[in-house]
Structure formats: C-alpha cells, structure tokens
Amino acid sequence: MSRPKVFVAMRHVPELAMDLLHKRFDVELCDSVQATRAEILQKIPGKFGIFCSPVNKIDEELIKTAGPSLKVVGTISVGYDHVDLAAMKKYGVRLGYTPDILTETVAETTVGLLISTTRRFFEANHALKTGEWKYLTPVWMCGRSIRNSVVGIVGCGNIGTSIAKKLNTFEISQLLYTSRTEKPAVKALGGKLVTIDELVEQSDFIILSVALNEDTKFIINEERLAKMKSHAVLVNIGRGGLIDQDALIKALQENRIGGAGLDVMTPEPLPLDSPLIKMNNVVLLPHIGSASIETRTEMAITTAKNIIAVLDNTPMPNEVQF
Ligand code: 8YV
Q1: Start and end of every D-isomer specific 2-hydroxyacid dehydrogenase catalytic domain (predicted)?
Q2: What is the value of pTM for the model shown?
Q3: Which among 126, 240, 254, 289 could bridge 266 via Cys, Cβ 3.0 to 4.6 Å?
Q4: What are phi and psi of 27, to 5 degrees?
C-alpha cells in the first residue's frame, strides 16, 4: 500500500528528524540545497505535507497546486509571516511551527550581535588581520558601553523577555520595552512599558524582537530613525521587513545614528552591492539567530513531529491556531 508523501524543501535536515519522517512517509527531498519556488510547485501535487522554512512562501497558489491531499505545512521556525493563514484556513491545511525551542539561542545571538556592533568586534578583527593594528592609542576602536545605557526592546514575547533577562546582568541604567500588554517578568527586572516613539527617542540600544505582520511592517521608518539618538545602535533579529531598509541606509550614510547589527535584512541573501556591506558601523549576520546545532536539531525534530501528528490525528506539539 502506498504511504502518504511529504516534500522536504531543504537538504541537511538533522538525521533524527529525517528518520522520523521516513518511518511514516514516502519522503521526497528537493534536488539541491534549497528548493526553488518552481521546484516546490512541480513537486507539491499529491503531497500530504511539506517541511519548509521562512524562505518558502506558502500561499494560495502553492496550496491549490498541492491539491486536496495537502493537510499540513511544517515550518522549521517560530515566525510564520511567510505563510498565508487565510489560504491555509480556506483549504483546511494545518500549520506546525517551532516556538520556545529557539528562545534562548536567539537571545544569545542578540546579545552577541549587540556587543559586537557597539564594541566594533568585526571592524577590530578586520583591522588586526589586515595589519591596520599598529598602535594602541586611547580611543582607537572604542565603542560605547552597554553598562549604564538605556536599552529598548521592541516586542517583549518569549525572545524579548529572554534578551531582557540576559541584558539585565549588564548593569544597564534603564530597560524600556513595547508590548501589547505589560509583562510581569520584564517589569520585575525594572522594565518600563512605553510607546514605540518613546522607546526610539530614549534608547541608546534598540532591539527589534517582534513578529512581522501588517502592524509591524516598517515599524522602524524614516520618521522613527529621525527620532533616534545620534549614537543609537539598532539591532534586528526579527525580520528584515520591520525596517524601512532604504531609510536605514540613508540614516547610516548621513551618520544620523550610531550603527546597526542585523541578523535579518531585505532581501535575504543580501546582494553584495548593498551599501550596508561596506559600512564599518554595520554588522551583518546571515540569519543565524537560532543556528546552534542543539536548537536546530530540536526544531527539525519538532517540525517532523508536527507533520506526523496530523497523520496520527493527535495534537501537534506546536500548532499555529488561526
Ligand atoms: C529559522 C527564523 O530557524 O524561527 C524563525 O522564525 O527565522 C529562524 O530561526 C531559520 O530561518 C531556519 O529555518
């Protein structure tokens, strides 16, 4: 008897997760490292599920192309802005995702990105390796301390709260945050719930840790960039679409803010001719917020289990409700 089929839209998925899928499904892997849109549309018809990531847009065209066999989309991510929830609902397709698992890893990345941006680690490393390090004068390669600074976290969900806890050990002078509701755990750290405009005006370091949706698209725009302190450092570990990137580039070019640390950007991968690439006060990471072996392995296993749960008609470990 033929088994239900799953399409895996990427290679190098941890073996433990692949083993789980192989036990229950006929698994079709994409041809290269990452499936193109055209390949997905070609291979999705007749599939029960798809194992995908935020690089794969899951929209009505794809769901319709899959046909009625498609019952589940499993995304190896906490974010699901790449999935058209209305279309999923219309065609009765369920969505599994991987919240919580990556919280601490993404928070670790954020702290690292913040420090390396404000303390100029990559610029300093480059200076050493290219022989620019000749003397040690008092202000050479100096950045600004996190200690005694005002840190603003935009979006205090699980990841934002974890970032707040980690940064609280840095003896900062004030923690500000935005959120739909007051967060007792952040309040207990001395965190103050403010508006986004108050946050951008008052913070030395601004961290974006919020989901991308219609309300948060371009939450950092020209107007808000203009309100920032001239030494403010902006860190983004959410989604590129949270920032009007052209406005950010302009603000950086005109030295209107201090710098930026971006783990996410628009588009991804960032073209090498982007002005951001050449800026010394910009640290760019290739979307590696959750990229620890332990975390990605657990995310992959959960994604597989989410897909299998639909086959078994049991509750998914993590399902997006819509
Ligand atoms: C993903 C992410 O892990 O979780 C998210 O929303 O963007 C990342 O952590 C990464 O894109 C791999 O799928």
Answers
A1: 10-320
A2: 0.97
A3: 240
A4: -100, 130
